[in-house]
Amino acid sequence: MTLSFQDEIIFPGYEKVVKGHGMPLANEKGVRGDLRIKFQVKFPSKLNDEQRAKIRDALRC
């Protein structure tokens, strides 16, 4: 499965729900639940000058 996150802002604790692609439901044959993806984002505590410049350039787009 390929997922797209275009036009979505991913942040710590963000949850993406993909309807109908989760685990099969126990009492309903052939029916699947929703797939939930929760993001754990860790930001660096320190950046050197080169890393800061690269991030600055990337955010200018």
From TrEMBL:
Gene Ontology molecular function, alphabetical: protein-folding chaperone binding; unfolded protein binding
Q: What does the UniProt keyword field contain?
A: Chaperone
Report the Gene3D superfamilies cross-referenced here: Urease metallochaperone UreE, N-terminal domain
The UniProt entry, under Pfam families, shows: DnaJ_C
Signal sequence: where?
Answer: none
Record-given protein name:
Chaperone DnaJ C-terminal domain-containing protein
- This protein's source sits in the domain of life called Eukaryota
Recorded GO cellular component terms are: cytosol
The record's annotation in InterPro entries points to:
DnaJ_C (IPR002939), DnaJ_subfamily_B (IPR051339), HSP40/DnaJ_pept-bd (IPR008971)
Record has Chaperone as a keyword: yes
Q: Does the keyword Lyase apply?
A: no
An example GO BP is:
protein folding
Residues covered by the Chaperone DnaJ C-terminal domain: 9-44
